[in-house]
Amino acid sequence: METDRDHAHNERDLVLLQPVIATRRPFYYLALFFLGFTSIAFFAWLWQLKQGLGVTGLNVPVYWGFYITNFVFFIGISHAGTLISAILRLCHAEWRRSITRAAEVITVLVLFFGVGSVIMDLGRPERALNVLLHPNFHSPLLWDVCSITVYLTASTIYLYLPLIPDIAILRDHGAKPAWLYRRLAIGWCASEKQKRVLNRAISVMAVLVIPIAVSVHTVVSWVFAMTVQPMWHSSIFGPYFVVGAIFSGIASLLIVMALIRRIYLLQDYLKPIHFNNLGLLLLVMALLWFYFTFAEFITTFYGSDPSHLVVFYSKLSGRYAVPFWTMVVTCFIIPVGILARRKTRTITGCVIASISVNIGMWLERFTIVVPTLSQPRLPWAKASYSPTWVEVAITIGFGATFMFLYMLFTKFFPIVSIWEVQEGREMAIPEVVERVKSYFPGEVLPSA
Amino acid sequence: MPRWGMVIDLAKCTACQACTVACQTENNVPCVPPKEAARGRIISWISVLPQIEGEYPRLSMRPTPLPCVHCDNPPCIRVCPVQATAINPEGVVRQIYARCIGCRYCTNACPYTRRMFNWYKPEFPGEFTEALNPDVSVRPKGVVEKCTLCHHRLQKARDEARAAKRELAEGDYVPACVEICPAGAMYFGDLEDHNSTVAALARSRRAFKPLEELGTHPKVIYLAQGEWSGGDGQGPRT
Amino acid sequence: MSFTFDRRNFLRFAAGGAVGVATSGVSLKGISTLNAAIDSELVRVPSGPESWATGVCNMCPGGCGLRVRLIGNRAVKIQGNPLHPINRGGLCPKGLAGLQELYHPDRLRTALRNTGTRDNPRWKGLSSDEALGLVSERMRKLRDAGEARSLVVVDRQRSGLLPRLLSRFMTAYGSPNYVTMPTGMDALQAAIYAQQGVSEQVAYDFSNSRYVLSFGVNLLEGWGAPVAMMRAFSRWRDAASGRRAKLVQIEPRFSMTAARADEWVPIRPGTEATLALGMAYVLISEGLYDADFVREHTFGFEDWRDAEGNSHTGFKSLVKSEYRLNDAATVTGVPADTILRLAREAAQNRPVLAIGDRHNSSLPGNVYAAMAVHSLNGLLGSIDVPGGVLVQQQLPGQALVSNAKDPLLPSAQTHVANAGELPQAIVSKRPYPMQMLLLNQVNPVFALPNGAAFRSAMKDVPFIVSFSAFLDDTAVLADLVIPAPTGLESWQDGGTPPTVANAIVSISPPAVRPRKDVRHPGDVMLSVARSLGGSLAAALPFAGYEEFLRNEVNGLYTAQAGAVFGSTLEDSWNRLMERSGWWAPSYSNADELWQQIKKQGGWWEPAYSHGEWSHVLRTKSGRFEFYSQALADLAKQRRRTEKIEDRECLPHQPTIPEATTNFPLLLMPVEQLPLAGGEGAHLPYLQQIAGVHVFANWDSWLEIHPETARTFGIGDGDSVWIESGRGRVQARARFYEGARPGVVHLPLGYGHKSGGEWACRGVNPLEIVEEQPDPVTGLPSAHWTYVKVYRA
Amino acid sequence: MIVIANRRSWCVLLFAVAALAVACVLVAVPLRAQGGGGYFIPGDPKAGMRSFFDKGCARCHSALGEGGHSAPDLARAPTGHLSSAELLAAMWNHAPEMWEKMRIEGVAPPKFAETDMANLFAFLYSVRSLDEPGDAERGRRLLQEKRCLECHGVGTEGKRQAPDLLKWAAYRNPVSWIQAMWNHAPAMQSAMAARGVKWPVFDGNDAPDMIAYIRRSAPSAAKPAYLRPADPEAGRKIFREKGCAACHAVGHGSRTAPDLRSRTLPRTLGQFAADMWNHAPAMRASMQARNIARPQFTNKEMADLIAYLFAERYFEPAGSAERGARLFQSKGCASCHRSGGAGPDLAGASVSPIHIATSLWNHGPVMFQSMQQQQVAWPRFQPGEVVDLIEFLGSKAAHRRDSGGRQ
Question: What CATH class is the domain D323-406?
C-alpha cells in the first residue's frame, strides 16, 4: 500500500546508491593515502617476520604491548555494530534504520583487524593453525578463537542478510560488476515470502548476535582475568570490557556516521536526532564505564594486596600516570562534559566526544595490558616498554586499512540500508502508533 | 613415579650466579648482544633476584636464584591455546618448541616471569657454536622456552641406570645449576621419596614456597635465611 | 531467478568450497615451508662421542679444578672437578665462562708484530715459530751485551709451576727482575710480615672459624680463592656443622658480602682501623682477650724497654689512651654499644678471624690499618689454630729460586720487585734502564691504578713481548704479541690459591686441540732456553712444558707426603692417617703419581699441623708483634736514624683526606664477582650477570644513594660525568639504597681500550682514581679519590 | 745444617725401609680379607668409613673429629681398647638410646648388609687404634717432668749430653719414635742410671704430646716423615723370629710375660708401642735372665709387629657355651627366641659379632618396639657375655644342624 509520497521518497532514496555508482577523484586520493599506510605496515610486518619480534619494543617481562592493545581495542569497536544494531532492532528503535548498516560494516571489518593484531603478535604466525590442530580448551585464547570465529560468522551473516534487498536494488539498477550483484542477490525479488523469511532470519540473527557479542568481549577480558596477575585477575573484567566495548563501538559509529554524512552528503538520512540519540547512549555508557572503572580501582585500593597496589600506583601516580589520567579525561570528563548538555550534544560535539572516547579507550586497553606486565610480582628489573616504529606503523596501518576497506565497502554497497529506510517509512509509522497506543489503557485493538 | 623438585637454601646462597651461567652453557641459551640486553631481552632460565629492601643503613637483601618453579598447578599450561606446554607425570613442566605459536600468553600468565621468549634467531658469534650441547636443541626464533630441569640429563641417567641394571639412585640425575652451585646451596631429587634429601629439607621449618599464596604449588622450595643465634650452641634459628 | 536452495546452487557452492579448500591447501603447504625455513635457520648441533677431561681453571687465581665435557673434539661444558679440594665440583660463573674464552671471536689467531710505532701500531701476522725466533734472538743479543739483568718478566700467577719455570729461567738468564702483578692483598701480606715475620701467603681457616670479622673485604665477590670461600660460607650455615658461624661485614657500602653477612656494620669510610682498635679496647679493658696467648706468644703488648733502656709504648696503653670506646664510636660512626657487642661476641665465639683492611682483589688497603685488624687475631689467639690465621704450606719439590721476597721492601737497589713500581723504575732508569719487557698474560695498563704511568713508561722500553690471547690494552702497546692458549687447550697447572693453607698442585693435560697458532708461555721459554744454550739450556733441560711438569711431579713424589686428589672420604681418611703419623699413598712410584694426577687433577697435602710457632712466628722476637720490629728496622734503614717514633711500628688509624668543595663525593671503586680482578669483561656470560643488584648489564654504572643524587640533581638512569682531579669518565647513574650518602661507587673491570668490542664497554674507574702510594710498602693503593658528579 | 742433613739421612733410611714394604695394606689392618692368611680383620676400613658417612652415622657421630658432633666420637669413646665383640656389646647396649634419638630427629635407622657391617667394624677398630695429634704445651711440660731435657736438647732448650731431639722432628708417628728409643734403650738406661733419672713412663697421649712439642720447636715446618702402612702378616713372622713368642702369648693362656691380647693394654698403636718402652727395663732384665738376645727393630718391623698384635686383638678368645646358655635364659632372650616364640628362632645361623650387629640394625628397632609393648627391658651385656652368648648360639646352631641332617 504505497502512497505516492512514499514512492517519491523511495525514488529519492536512490541517492543512497550514488556512492556505489559514481566515484569522484578525491576518493582515489584518499584511498591511495590510506593504502600508503597499509603498505608501510605491510613492510613493517615483513620486517618483523624476517627478524623476529625483537623489532618491537616488547621485552621481559612486558611480553604484550601495542598488538594486544590493538586486539582488545579493535574487538571492542566491533561491538559498535552488530550489538548496537541488534539491540536497536530488537527494541524496535525506529531511528536505527539509517545507521544499522554503517554499524554492522564496522563490526565485520574491524574483526579482521582484531584477529590480525593477534597474528601480528605471534612469534610464529605460520603456525597459527595449530589452534585448530592442537586445541587446548582450557585456554581463554582458544575461547577467543571460538567466540570470535562465531562472532565473525554471525555478524557477517547479520550484515549480509539485510544487504540482500539492497543488492537486489543495485542489481536491478544495473550496477557493475553485474555478476557480483547477481550472485550476491541470490535471486531476491522482494516477494512476500522472501520478505517474511528475511525478516525472520534477521530477527533470529539479532537475537543470536547479542549473546555472541557479549560473550566475545567477555572472553577477551578473560584472557587477562583468567590469569593470576595483579589487576588482571578480576571478576569485574567481563562486564567492564563489554561496557567498554560498546562504549568505544558507539564512539566509532558516531565518527563513521559523521564522515559518511559529510562525504556522501547524507544529511537527510543521518540527522542530528541520530547523533543525539547515539550521543545519549554514549553518555550512558560513559557513566557506566566510569562506574566500572571506579569500582575496579576502589576494590583494588581497599583490598591493598601489595602486588596489586604496585600496579595500582604505577597507574595512578607512577610511570603510567600520563596514559591513565589522559584516559580518565578522554573517556569520562570530555564526553560527559560535552554530551550531558543538550546544547553541546551537537553533531560536532558528538564527534569530538567520540574521538576523545576512542583515544581514551585505546589508552584504557594499554593501561590494562602494559602496567601489569611491567610490574611482575617478583621484582625483576624495572622494565619499561616503548613501542618501535614497527608497532606504530602496524597500528596506524591497521587503522588506515580499516578506513580504506570501509571506503571500499561504500563503493560496492549502500552504506545506509535503502530497503529498511523504505520499510520504515512504509510500515513503521503505523506500527509505532499502534504500539504506543497499546501501552496505554483504552480500547483493545484488534491485533495487526 | 618420582616427583622432581629442588630445594634452595637461601642461607647458603652467595648470589654468585654460577647457576645462571651453568644453565646457559648446558642448555644452549644464547647470549644476546649488548643492545638487546639493555632492552631487557636477556634469556635466562634461572636468574638471581636481588630483592633489596629498606633504606640506608637498615637494608636487607635476599638474593634468590629463581628457575621455573615447576608448579604442580601451573598457570602457564592452562592458558596455552595449542597445548605447547605440558606437565609430565613426573611433574616437569615442559615446552614443545615445534608447536609453540609464540603468543606469549604463558609468559604473561606465569607469576614468576620464568618463561622466556626468543625475540630473534639465536646468535652464536664466532666459534661459540662449537660449545653447543648436542643433547639440547637450539630453539628457533619466535617460540617460548623455559627451564626443563635439564630433562636430557634425566634421560641419560635413566639410560645409564638401565644399562647398569639398577634403579635410578639419588644423585644420578641433577640439573646443571644444582650440580655447579659452589656453595652447595641447591638440592635436587624426588620429593615423593620421603627419604630423599629434598623431601627432608622440604619438611624443614625453614622451608617456604615462592608465591605460595597463589596456589601454584611450586616444586622449587626455598629455605629461609635464618639468623645467627649467638653462642647458645643451637643451630640456625628458623 | 528464485531464491531457492536448488541443486544448481548447491553444486555451485560445492565447487566454490572445493576451490577454497584447494587454495588453502596450497597455502598450508606454503605455511609449512615457511615454518621449515625458519627452523632451518638454526644451528644444527653435531653429535659425537662423549668424553671427559680434567682441567685447571685459569680465569682467576682461585685455583679450581675443572671437568670438561667433550663431544668429539669440541668442549661443550665446563664443570667443577668433584675431586678437587678447592672447589669439590662447584664452580663460579667465571670458571664456567672459560668456554666462551676458548671459542672467543676476538682471540688472536696468529702472532703479531708491530711494524708501525707504539702510538700508531701496524700489525703484521707471523707464525709462532718466527715470533719465537725473534724473542730468542733479542734475548741472546741482550745477554751477549751483558745486559741480561735489564730483562723484566711480569707474571700473572704467583703460585703454581709456571712461575717456578719463569723464575728459574730468569735466574739462569741472569736477571733478578721477575715480578708479579700487585694484588689487593699486598698490604695485608705486609702487615702479616710486620707482625708475624712470615712472607708466605697468609691463609685463613675459614671453614672452622666461628666468628669472622671482615673489615671491608669483599669475601664473596671474587676475593682470595672465591669458590673455596663460598664453600666455607656454606659451611658456616650448615646445620650439620653444629653451629652457625657469624660473618660480620664492616663496610660503608651494602655490598653483596654485606648483604649475605649475618650482620652489616656500616662504617665511615676509612675508619676500619679505629673500629678494630676500639674493639681491642673493649677486649682489653674487659679482660676478654686470650691472656695465655698474649703472655706466651706476643711482643709489645705491655709497655716495654729495649736493650738501650728506652721505654716504648705497648699496644695496651696505645689502645687505652687513643682508642677508647666512645672515641672510636665518634670516629667510625658505629654506635658504641655495637662495638661493645661485637667485641664481646667475638670473645665468646672463638676461633675468630679478623680480616682487613678494606681491599678488593685489585686495590690494596693500608698496612697500619691491616695491622690494627690483625692485632685482633693476636688478641684473640687466632694465630695458627684451627679456625684461625694460618700460613700457606710451601709446595714440595725442587724450588731453585725462592719467590718469597720481603714484602716490606719491594724496592731493593738491585731489582724491581713488583709490577706496580715498574713504571717508576723504567722512567727513572733506576736501578738501571730496562731493555726488554716480557708480559705473561697480564694487562697492567688496564688493571693497575697507575696504568697510565705504565702505558707511558712502556714507550721507554725498546722491546716488549706479550703473551696474550687477546690484543688487550697492554698487548696493543707491545712489539710482539704471541697468542697464549686459553685454559682448555694446553697443559695447565695451578698452585695453592691465595688464602688457602694446604699445599695444592693442579695439573691438567690439554682438553682440546689448540684453536689457533697458540704457544704456551712455558713452551716458549723452554725453547728459548734451548736455543740460547749453555747454562740456560742446562737449567731447563726440558723438551716441552709437559716434560717440565712431569719433572715437578717427580719432586712431589720424593716428598713422600700428601695425596692425589680424591673424594672427601679419601681425604678424610688420608687426613686421619697423616695426623696420626701414617702415610698411605695411592701410588707407589712417580709414574703412577703422574698418571693419577693427570686423571684426577692434582696432588695436595690434606693435613695441616697447627701451632708450629717457630714456623708461623718468625719475627725477631719469635712472637706475634703488636709492635713490629721489622717496621722499626725498616724505618731506621730508610731514614738512616735510630730515632723513630713508636707510632711507626704500632697499628694505628691512618689519616684520611677530607672532601673538598670542588670534589664533594668520595669515589670507591667496587668489585663484582663476574669481573673480579679486572678480568672477564670480554665474556658475554659475565657481562650479562654483572651488576645484578642494580639491574645493570653490559655497562658501567655509578652507584649513588638516591638522597645524594637528588642533592646533585641526578635522576635514576641519567648519564653522568664523574670527575676527579685526574680526569672524568661517563657512566649511567643507578640509584642504590646500599650506597652510603656522600659516597659513590664505580665497578672495576669495565672500560678496556682494546681487546674487542665486548671488552671495551663501560669505563675504567682506575682512570680517575688518585694514586696514593702506601707509606710503608710504596705500593700503589687507591682508596681516596674525591669526585664531583654531574649530568652529562 | 747438621740437623737438616741428619734429617735427610733419616728420611732416606726411612724411605728405603718403606720402599721395601708391600704397601697395599693400611696401618695395622689388612684390607684384603680374601687374600689368605690367618690374621686378617674381615672388612675394609676405608669402605667402612664410606658406610660410616653414607649410612648416616656421621650425622651425629664423629671419628677423630671427622663427622657430626652431637654424639660421641667413636674413635675416643669409650676410652679403652675394644675387640669386635666389645664393639658389638657397646653398640647393642646403646642401640635403644640411638633409635630413640633418631626417632625424635625423624631419621630412619640405617639397614646394613653384612659386608657393610664388617667394613664398619674394621673402620671403627682401626680408627680407634690411631693416635691423635698431641698437645704441644703438655708435651713441653712432660719433657720437663720426665727429665728428658736433662740430657737431650730441644733446639735452644735442654742439655747437650744426648742428641738434640729436633733431629727426629720430622717423625710424625709415635711408633717411629718408640722404635728409635727402643733400640737405644739399653744405652739410655745405663745413662739414666748413672744420673739417677727414673725410667720415664709414657701414659696415654704422652708420646704424641711430646712429639708435637718437638715438632713445634723445629726451626721451620719440618718436612714430615710418615710410616707406611704396616703388614700384620710380616708382623707375625717378626713376632716369631725375634723371639717374642718365647715369653709372650697372644690369647692362648698365660706365659711368663703378659698376654698381648689383654684388653687392659692400650687402645692406640702409639700407646701400645709406648707400653713396650715402659716395660723395656723389665723386659731387658727378664731377657737377660733367660739369656735371650734383646731384639732390635727397624721402624717398619715395629709397625708390622704391632699391626699383627692389633689384628689379633680384634678377636676375643672363645667364650663358654654353658655360660652363654645361662645368659640366654637370664637375659630373657629365650622367652621370645624359641621355636614358636614371638621372635625368630636363632638357631641355624652362623653367628659372629658382625652378624649380630647387622641383625641388630636391621631388625632391632622392630624388636625393641615389640619389647616395649610387652614391657620387657632391653637386655644389656658385658663384653665377655657377648662372647659366651655367641659361643652358645654357635653350639646350639651346630646341634640343630646336626639333628636336621639326621632327619
Answer: mainly alpha
Evaluate if pTM is beyond 0.95: no
Please state the separation of Cα C786 from the chain's center in Å.
26
How far is it, in rounded angstroms, from Cα A367 to Cα A380? Answer: 19
Among the listed residues B213, B204, B229, the one whose alpha carbon sits nearest the alpha carbon of residue B10: B204
How many pairs of residues across A and C have Cβ atoms under 8 Å apart? 26
Whether the CB of C515 is below 8 Å from some CB of chain B: the reply is yes
Contacting A residues, span 93-122, partner chain B, CB-CB under 8 Å: 118, 121-122
Buried b (16+ CB within 10 A) or exposed e, D253-264: eeeebebbbeee
- Read off the DSSP letter of residue C540: -
d(CA B130, CA B151): 22
Q: Which CB contacts under 8 angstroms, 24+ apart, belong to C543-549?
A: C545/C165, C545/C490, C545/C491, C545/C520, C546/C491, C546/C509, C548/C161, C548/C165, C548/C522, C549/C161, C549/C491, C549/C493, C549/C507
Q: In which domain, by residue range, is C112 found?
A: 108-182+418-484+519-546
C-alpha cell at C552: 715437578
- Asked if C31's CB is within 8 angstroms of A129's CB, the reply is yes
CATH number, domain at C706? Answer: 2.40.40.20
Q: Please tell me whether residues C203 and C113 are part of one structural domain.
A: no
Whether A414 and A19 have beta carbons less than 8 Å apart is answered as yes
The answer to whether A345 and A385 are in contact (CB under 8 A) is: no
State the Cα–Cα distance between residues C758 and C457, nearest whole angstrom: 27
Cα(B49)–Cα(A381) distance, rounded to whole angstroms?
Answer: 9
Residue C651 is classified by DSSP as: -
Share of chain A above pLDDT 70, in %: 96
- The C-alpha cell that represents C292 in the structure block: 695465655
Contact B200 D108 (CB under 8 A): no
Cell of A195: 520478505
Residue C9 in contact with residue A187, Cβ under 8 Å? no
Answer yes or no: are the C-beta atoms of D6 and D164 closer than 8 Å.
no
Q: What is the 3-state secondary structure (H, E, C) of C551-613?
A: HHHHHHHHCCCCEECCCHHHHHHHHHHHHCCECCCCCCCHHHHHHHHHHHCEEECCCCCCCCH
The CATH number of the domain holding residue A266 is 1.20.1630
Work out how many domains chain C is built from and give that number.
Answer: 4
**C724-766 tens-digit pLDDT:** 999 999 999 999 999 999 999 999 999 999 988 999 999 999 9
Structure confidence at residue B232 as a pLDDT band (50, 70, 90): very low
Question: The complex's ipTM?
Answer: 0.88
Query: Which alpha helices (H) appear in D314-352, and where do they start and end?
Result: 321-330
**How close is the nearest chain B Cα to the Cα of D47, in Å?**
19
- Contacting residues of D for B197, CB less than 8 Å apart: none
CATH of B4-223, one of 3.30.70.20, 3.20.20.370, 3.30.200.20, 3.40.50.11320: 3.30.70.20
> Residues A399, A114: contact at Cβ < 8 Å?
no
